[in-house]
């Protein structure tokens, strides 16, 4: 029954990945803007900065295998990773809240969710994740961290009351300096353990059983 929607998502994902081929040049332009000041998200307002297809497939499998339903994503960009999350959520009957700072990116992401036919299971919140998720009260089964890395720790701490013993926190760009600082803090907390994937580019944090 869900084969048709899965195909529609797959088609949208493939179209978007084709478009990411222009990212390299746009990243260089973004980096040039930030040569004499700290990088800002706006410097990359036209850039996908997406996870890879393999990572997306893995993310989908994690959701399905662990029957994860309540999914929160930090860092939507144009929605490639959200569409992989949606592939998993369609199987588990789950839903996604995703949040993006830059309104133009969020607008395009919403249009991509509509093209993929999954906008009914995705809520997109526009603004700083620390604000858009501040009053979030429901349980979280999967927290996908892929926004600016300096917010990984404050966001984790803000949302931690919503975790349960089976919550998975998926940390993208785990090998970046600020993510490492975050992971070091987590490693000192007895409650959690983390497992590195994709040559250390991804970390999965879970509660010790
Ligand atoms: C690496 S990209 C996300 C890529 C996306 N997850 C994917 O794989 O397709 C990071 C995104 O986080 C957004 N971002 C940065 N700081 C943010 C914040 N404070 N709140 C919400 N989004 C933020 C950026 O604008 C950017 O689009």
Describe the structure.
Pfam families: Methyltransf_3. GO terms for molecular function: O-methyltransferase activity. InterPro entries: SAM-dependent_MTases_sf, SAM_O-MeTrfase. Keywords: Methyltransferase, S-adenosyl-L-methionine, Transferase. The protein has a 7-stranded mixed sheet with strand order 3-2-1-4-5-7-6, with helices on both faces. The chain contains 8 helices and 7 strands. The radius of gyration is 16 Å and the shape is globular. It starts with a helix and ends with a strand. It has 209 residues and is an alpha/beta fold. The chain has a single domain, classed as Vaccinia Virus protein VP39 (Rossmann fold), CATH 3.40.50. 44% of the residues lie in helices and 21% in strands. It binds S-adenosylmethionine (SAM).
Tell me the radius of gyration. 16 Å
What is the CATH class name?
Answer: Alpha Beta
Strand order of the largest sheet: 3-2-1-4-5-7-6
Q: Could you say how many structural domains there are in total?
A: 1
Write the element-wise H/E pattern from the N-terminal end onward.
Answer: HHHEHEHEHEHEHEE
Looking at the structure, the CATH topology is: Rossmann fold
Q: How would you classify the helix and strand content by structural class?
A: alpha/beta
Annotated CATH homologous superfamily = Vaccinia Virus protein VP39
Task: Please report the total strand number as a whole number.
Answer: 7
> Unreliable stretches, pLDDT < 50, 5 or more residues?
none
The fraction of residues in strands falls at 15-25%
Distance between the termini: 35 Å
CATH architecture: 3-Layer(aba) Sandwich
Q: Main beta sheet, described?
A: 7 strands, mixed
The total count of helices amounts to 8
The share of residues in helices is 40-55%
């Amino acid at each position: 029954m869900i084969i048709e929607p899965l195909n529609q998502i797959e088609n949208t994902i493939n179209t978007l990945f084709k478009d990411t081929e222009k990212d390299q040049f746009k990243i260089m332009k973004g980096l040039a803007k930030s040569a004499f000041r700290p990088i800002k998200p706006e410097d990359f307002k036209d850039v996908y900065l997406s996870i890879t297809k393999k990572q997306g497939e893995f993310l989908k499998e994690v959701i399905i295998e662990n029957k994860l339903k309540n999914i929160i994503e930090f860092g939507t960009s144009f929605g490639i990773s959200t569409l992989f999350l949606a592939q998993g959520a369609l199987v588990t009957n789950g839903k996604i809240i995703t949040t993006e700072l830059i309104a133009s990116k969020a607008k395009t992401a919403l249009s991509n969710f509509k093209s993929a036919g999954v906008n009914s299971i995705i809520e997109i919140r526009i603004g700083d994740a620390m604000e858009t998720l501040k009053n979030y009260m429901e349980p979280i089964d999967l927290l996908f961290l892929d926004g600016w890395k300096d917010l990984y720790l404050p966001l984790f701490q803000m949302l931690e009351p919503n975790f349960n013993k089976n919550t998975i926190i998926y940390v993208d760009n785990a090998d970046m300096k600020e993510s490492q600082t975050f992971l070091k803090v987590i490693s000192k907390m007895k409650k959690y353990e983390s497992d590195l994937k994709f040559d250390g580019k991804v970390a999965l944090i879970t509660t010790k059983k």
